[in-house]
């Protein structure tokens, strides 16, 4: 949890600034690079897609292993990487763990690639 | 160049669909993962930031080495990775090579993280 909080803290300053905006500091770039490293795996992208598109905004871990030809521990590892990058959060209710995206984090990434300041040359 | 075109072709179908939308195919996820791998390096993120925020929308390679404590060949390598991921394009004019972002690619990534379909649970 402290890892997640540390990541949140450091990336907070880059919040909604697009890449076409102010200069990224070395520290901001290093933290953002970690988030993109979490996204640089096809299974993790498909898991994030399944969670983001799940009905009611959350997905039971019991529904996240079926689509993959992978063991439950491997899926759990990928979910942990996404969670540590602050992209998803989890909650245990009874037997199962439920995952949902962290909208704030996804909105920040969306804003990063927005190009409001780019005018035709 | 063929590598760049191949990447464009494969990612085209995921165009503007957000992660909260239709299911990503394995092929789409694999191609997207490559783009995020290109972004998972702090130097490349800062280069992309410098290029995206450059006056007139383009940056001379001669202005891209100064901010880093790295050799010109290392910077060239990082620029090549960004170019192969379809994030920037380059043009030689006289002595120097000039880089600009590919707005369409950045807009696609922005759309990927948009959350239009997410309603509060």
From TrEMBL, chains A, B:
Pfam families documented for this protein: HTH_5
Record's keyword annotation contains Transcription: yes
Top-level taxon of origin: Bacteria
One GO molecular-function entry: DNA binding
InterPro entries: ArsR-like_HTH, ArsR_HTH, HTH_ArsR_DNA-bd_dom, HTH_MetalResp_TranReg, WH-like_DNA-bd_sf, WH_DNA-bd_sf
Residues in HTH arsR-type domain copies: 24-121
Keywords on record: DNA-binding, Transcription, Transcription regulation
KW Transcription regulation (keyword) present: yes
Name assigned to this protein: ArsR family transcriptional regulator
Organism: Actinomadura coerulea
